[in-house]
Amino acid sequence: MRYYPVNLDIKNRPCLVVGGGDVGTRKVMTLLDCGALVTVVSLAVSNNLLNLAETGLVTLKKRAYVESDLNKMFLVICATDNETLNRQVSMDAKKLNMLCNVADRPEACNFILPALVKRGDLVIAVSTSGKSPAFAKKIRKDLEKQYGDEYARFLKLMGAVRKKLLSTKHEPEAHKHLFEELIDKNLVQMIKDSDTDKINSVLFEVLGKGFEFYDLTKPKDHGITNE
Fold first, then answer.
1. Do 20 and 72 share a domain, yes or no?
2. I need a surface site. Which of 10, 24, 101, 168 has the fewest CB within 10 A?
3. Residue among 194, 190, 198, 185 nearest 222 (CA)
4. Are 82 and 108 in contact (CB under 8 A)?
């Protein structure tokens, strides 16, 4: 296995995107979703990036890239169709031991970006190690059909249960069997079926009193009503 799978915490970390076209815009949006502090360097930029810059969500430098743009950055993503520029950014980042991704050029990267399926806090990453992005995209689409929004609501519920249990000062390991039992009870399907009564019955059976679905989740995340 060539690549070491890892989830990076980039919240409030400065990240650079070189290139302001459609690909660069997509990279920027993903970085913003993860809480990064994004700077974009590009002579030409999309309307979306202009809007993001006007609202202060990204820092935009409408000019050509220079090596000093990498100063104090945590990582850089290069998303241009200029091969000379792509190689230059890759070499500059290598000198600084910086994380660098060049879109569609795995040989110029020290990390690659997988295809993602996102359902709230559930993130499923698919990688072909750069061999076939098209196949990774196909698998991603298959997974999107298999994993619906009920998984996001399920994780919201599980997170709330975990927080409440930890507030009782129990050690996390002591809760492991409880979560395994909740998963085995097929709560995901109950959430998909909008069966609040069954959900509450399972919560009571496994956890006891004080664990009600509506009490554990925010009103905007309920999404479940009795038919």
1. yes
2. 168
3. 194
4. no
Residues 40 and 141 in one domain: no
DSSP bridge partners of 83: none
Interval 111-124: pLDDT, tens: 999 999 999 999 99
Encoded tokens for 127: 């990688």
Q: Are 134 and 198 members of one domain?
A: no
For the stretch 141-177, pLDDT in tens is 999 999 999 999 999 999 999 888 888 766 667 788 8
Q: Are 211 and 204 in contact (CB under 8 A)?
A: yes
pTM listed for this prediction: 0.81
> Is residue 227 assigned to a domain?
no
**Domains contained in the chain, number:** 3
The candidate with the shortest Cα–Cα distance to 27, out of 58, 56, 69, is 58
Give the range of the structural domain holding residue 118, as residue numbers without chain letter: 114-145
